[in-house]
Amino acid sequence: MRQFWGKIFGTVFGYLLFRQAGAALGLLIGHYFDQGLMRRLKSSIGPRDPAARRAYFNATFLVMGYLAKIDGRVNEAEIECARNIMQRSNLNQSLNNDAIKLFNRGKVADFNLAAVLEGLWQASRGHPGLVHLFIETLLELALIDGDLNNDERRLLLLVCQHLHCPPQLFEELRSSHSTRHSFYQGWQSSTKDQRKANSNTNSLDQAYAVLGVSSSDNIATIKKAYRKLMNQHHPDKMVAKGLPAEMLKLAQEKTQQISAAYDAIREARGFR
Asked: What is the pTM of this model?
């Protein structure tokens, strides 16, 4: 792909101002502008490579199948959870069929977990938002029938190891996953007046936990934590890094939960 608009505008504008000398200078400036624009375009287009998106899609449903089977059998709650994730991913019929096949393939005895995770790591380029969303999708499945059993915990820690996610961060993700969903359900079902009335109850404690801060932190710290989380998990940035566009809704759900927690804290503490 060639980019030349900078040269054209630079030459024309330079000529109008300084004739031939201005045209030459405008051409040179336009050339450097085009070079910089091309670099930016390449950096943004590169991660949108269909192979990167496919790697994330495949890894999600393959490892979900492997996780569901890790304790010997796949129960109805896990199957329903997998279906729900596929539905929320807004997959068309073809992709939904692919997801089901991948889920079933992940359950086979010779499934190569390490190879799949290495492909995901390379595709995501270590982007924290993508890694966190992937792990939390697995957590949603693992926690559907209660807390993690030993097999599930070992597998998820192994996944974290391959994706360079420290065990401490995994525990934070595990804790915040349940907290965020339970907080957001209460937030959605309450009115603004009810939220104010409940600002000193457990729901506000949950909001602080979603942002990874405490009630004793100052406003600047809370704002910084919120901006960092929103920057890491911004859906557009995650799609640019390799998240399949069909799975965008999963990322949007997370940012909505983060935003709701921040709004709850703002209302309770009275800052903007």
From this structure: 0.70
